[in-house]
Amino acid sequence: xxxxxxxxxGKRRLPCGKIMNRYFSLKGPEMDFKKEExxxxxxxxxxxxxxxxxxxxxxxxxxxxxKKTEDNEIxxxxxxxxxxxxxxxxxFVKIN
Length: 96
Description:
Helices cover about 35% and strands about 15% of the residues. It has a two-stranded antiparallel ribbon with strand order 1-2. Strand 1 (about 5-15) and strand 2 form a beta hairpin. By secondary structure, it is α+β, with helices and mostly antiparallel strands. The two termini are about 25 Å apart. The protein contains four helices and two strands; from the N terminus they run ββαααα.
């Protein structure tokens, strides 16, 4: 993608001495979010941005609707909306 001029590559030295590659998009994102959706996205980012990937995975897997659903099964809509979830702000994503 660097060769196609879609992204640029930056490098940063970490305190431990290793080099971290950083990738940057050379064009803006294509998104069509409503104002309310952007507010919710920013709330979620603010709430979870201090966590690493493993911690976010553990956080999501400990939520009531996920715990009550068998592996590889779809979470029931009613469970997702239940008041037993630890998050009042819900994000729904339809995966095709």
